[in-house]
Acyl-CoA synthetase (AMP-forming)/AMP-acid ligase II
Amino acid sequence: MPAEVWPQPVLDLLATGDDRPVFEDGDRTVTTAQMYRLVRRIAAGLRAAGAGPGVGVALRLGVTAEAFAAIIAAFAVGARVSGIRPDLTPAHRARRGEGELLLDDVRVAELAGTPDDGRPLIAAGRPDDVARIIWTSGSTGSPKGCAQTYAAMSAAWAPYPDRWPPAIADLATRLRRYLVFGSLSSQVMLEYGILTLAAGGTLVAARPPGFPGMIARHRATASVITVGKLYQLVHDQRAHPVDLSSLRALMVSGSPVAPGRLAEALDVLGPVVFQGYGQTETGMITMVTPAEMLASPAALASVGRPPAVTELSIRDADGRPATEGELFVRTPAQAAAYWNDPAETAGVFVDGWVRTRDLARLDGDGYLHLLGRIRDVVIVHANLVYAGPIERILAADPAVAEAYVVGRPDDVTGEAVHAYVVPAAGHTPDAGRLRALVVRALGEASAPQTIRWIDRVPVGPSGKPDKRALAYLTLT
């Protein structure tokens, strides 16, 4: 357990009291000294409202300096902090627990007017208490609340430059103006936001949102981008380029990018794309830098290498070590359980490891390659057919930009493979040839029964490809 409890390093950084800008919102600039005073006042208001160790604080906040201060203040008083996503059902919201204090933008504005109580602002979280609940995207089922303790958050690397892995140290030099949008309570936005502050940069509120205009408008040097938005950005820059000369880093979030599309993004946007891999349960697992991808085709086809503090274990179906198989991960800052969900917890959090449910392999240089999802299977004649290998074969064809595979019930085979393909610019894929490529590599059972062309893949609220929507298309 580190000597400091989260978020003490952030409080210490803000307590320097200097005039460095840490948050910019249009014409408004908030300095470290101003942000620290804001955190102090909101923390005083939270304590007066009964918030403290073991008490839940739910966040429904936009992107403002007050929202950022409220998040840090809630952690500072030792509360259990959870963001409320718009797509969470009433049942999921009810799982968070009784007696939570709800903070929306109006309530935070009221708290910001609380007089400073003069008490020392020292992180009050108890190591074994749950510090935050982060909801998974639900891309493989119902969203689950990942419960992360104060001990785990205190072990994270983001606020500590001496803990940064090499890829993060490279990224940190590019975070002078980090563009934030959506919700600052999201895992990715907050983590890179803290990294930005530790690197001496400024959080810049995106007003209004929209790639690529907001990058140029705010002279942003860095931001997070989903795979779908990255593809659209590359397309837009080819068709109607805008000035992105300020851009130094785009961190791809949500799902891996096909090697061909990564190469295209690096060619069109320059050496600014960082591909990372992580899960809500674990935080970042691996990352690969633009320099690595430009230097090595193997790196381009991977999701990067893990930091020294992260352990990877690849296992076969019987739990034995394997060269290819299911990936198990252990990180210092991983979640401890799913909140109020013991059944799901038992299946994923195993003997200190997190089952990722992803199929993977490590190459000779330590780069991790993802091969598909354990649950992303089609059962053809009682045999498991994995979608990932089929998608990779289809996407490797020069006429194909993206490929997605789903299964649907079939009267003869039980289930059948159906593929959706986004054609590469200027190409018309040949369905017969694509099907033959799959048969040659994987056998007849893996051959798509149908291959349909789509302009773009539908995405869910998290920005990840929504295969359930594709499966519905198969029926229409």
The radius of gyration is 23 Å.
